[in-house]
Design a protein that fits this description.
Layout: H1 17-61, H2 70-79, H3 103-110, E1 118-122, H4 123-126, H5 131-140, E2 146-151, H6 157-165, E3 171-179, H7 181-187, E4 199-204, E5 233-237, E6 257-261, H8 269-275, H9 280-288, E7 295-298, E8 312-313, E9 319-322, H10 330-338, E10 340-341, E11 347-349, H11 364-373, E12 379-383, H12 389-396, E13 404-409, H13 423-431, E14 448-455, H14 459-470, E15 478-485, H15 493-501, E16 505-512
Parallel strand pairs: 1-2, 2-3, 3-4, 4-5, 5-6, 6-7, 7-9, 8-10, 9-11, 11-12, 12-13, 13-14, 14-15, 15-16
Helix pairs in contact: 5-6, 6-7, 11-12, 13-14
Amino acid sequence: MMESFVQHLHTNYVPSEPEIKLIHSHLASHETELARLESLIRDLSAQRDQIKAYIDPYRALASQGRRIPQELLEHIFLDCLPEHRNAAMSSAEAPLLLGHICSAWRSIAFALPQLWAAIHVSSKFMSDVPISELQTWLARSASSPIAFSLQCASGETEKALPALIDVSARWKRVQIHGSSLQELESTAVLRVAAPWLQDITIIFREDPVDWDITRDPTRVLVLSLFQGPSLQSVTIHTTHPIGFVPREPFLWNQLLHLTLSFPMMSDDPRIQTNHGDFTIDSALLLMKYCPRLESIHMHLYWPHAPSYQETIFLPHLKSLTILDRSLISAQDLSYFLDHLNMPALSHLHLPSVCPQSYPDAFQPSVFSALTDRSPLVTSLRLPLPFFDQQSFAEILDCFPSLVVLRTIDDNHSPRGGEAPVDTAHLLHLLSHRPPSHTAEILCPALKELVLEQEALHGDTFWVSVHEAILGRQPLFERLEIRVRYQYQEEHGTPHFDALHALGVQVGVGYRFPKGSPWNGVER
């Protein structure tokens, strides 16, 4: 009888009242059996849980984990720490997470000083937790050298810094982000003694201009925090550099790496006055105080009255980078380079053209003299509008050992007179022998070309790049194109495929990609 219902199963059929009674009658015996089986399952599950509860402690007692030597476990714990940042004060990651596993792990973790020797502190987070938590963390690090990063919120710097200052004798690497000079001065952090400190980075908050430029400002870099005997690397970023660079002679004999990022962020004359405290002559004087420098990254600003006479000898300097957003002309840069003797220099990176730059261009004699003193340059970054087409081949010819060439073509042409160099002219020079040169190609050792562009406009650019690279032997090993704006869909893929087939690595990236319907949507 029930077979007649089979055709209605899994359909929208509505049975009649007699049919419903028939269905219930048919299912009664099946539901009784189902209840019996579920009761049996509950009984068996209870027996299983009882046996498992008996077995588990014995199994844990004989587990492999208990036989891991403590020394090996400590190495594993250390490998659990974040690789590229300091550990946060969160139980979601090591080292705090390790203390939540079991009492044995907690004992090992709390007794391992190296596990607590690096910490990221958010001052905003610290405003909601007792300072004792930070003090406990620092106490667990015992006598280990300390690395910390402090993310400051306005007006909240003072809470965390005193606890960190208490262990300043053990500082090894320090990063402070978002504080102001006045806040750091109020906590005396700039005046602490840190004999083990090797690396310090301070990124100052961009406060409104509130400097009294008539006062004699504190010279930050001569304060005791920056004068430790172990200090090798200093990074300072501020939009208000007045008061940072010393005026009186001092010696940074131990310093190897220096970054002074003083970007001009506004046309406000008060800000320009602040930047006027750090001129090219100031930079030269500072470099003189650092005879062991291996790398330096800095912004440069015009010399109001160039007066420096001495040539600075930097025998160990390998990398010199003048940062973008420097307010400087080709004449200023020439003056700067002419006063440096850097026999070990291998990386020279010049900044992009600033719209306020003076209307002049680099002369070949500047680079000829430079490479006479620095013959080992293998990596070079050049702002193309700072050069004239007539003399650019002669300048490139000064760098026969060049391996990496980066160029900036930002479409700024502040100069009159000779036509400035652009990317098209550069590509032509690199793939054709100039008539006045005997060499087959310019820069014969060149393997990598990086083109920094304001924008790309259609397929013409890709065709010229493709043809230029194919016209050069040997081919580049790598081509990278960095674009500020993406105005339209580009058409480089077929050319990329052709270059890839020849063994050339090709990459392109946009700082500001083309607009998309998904802009602003969290993914």
